[in-house]
Amino acid sequence: MNGPDTWTVDRVESDIAVLVRDIGARVVELPLTDLPEGTREGSVLRVPAAQGLPDWAGAELDEEARQARLEEAERILARLKRRDPGGDVKL
Q: Which of 8, 20, 38, 70 is most buried, by CB atoms within 10 Å?
């Protein structure tokens, strides 16, 4: 039996959340009201499947995964900054 799929909120446009599935990079747009309270850009959701489709009513926020992804992005950014020689780009 498979566990829930992981989806990330890429962005919120008005009251519509644009979510990207981790596996397969499938993209869906849903009203924020269909998602758990507190969902925002960068939120990570664990979403069970019902008959092969995401069961958005059963979605749960995964704050630990969101924080881990944020920390990883910050580490990557810091590493890139250390490699940047600074100054203007010459073409």
A: 8
Nearest residue to 44 via CA among 25, 68, 26: 68
In angstroms, the Cα distances linking 51 to 13, 54, 89 are 29, 8, 53
pLDDT in tens, 30-75: 999 999 999 999 999 999 988 888 999 999 999 999 999 989 999 9
Alpha helices in the chain (DSSP H): 63-83
Instruction: Answer whether CATH 2.40.50 is correct for domain 5-83.
Output: yes
Residue among 56, 35, 42, 31 at smallest CA distance from 9: 42
**The tokens 């749960």 sit on which residue?**
60
Average pLDDT over residues 72-80: 91
- Can you name the residues that pair with 61 across neighbouring β-strands? 45
Of 25, 22, 27, the closest CA to residue 68 belongs to: 22
Token pair, residue 73, equals 């992005």
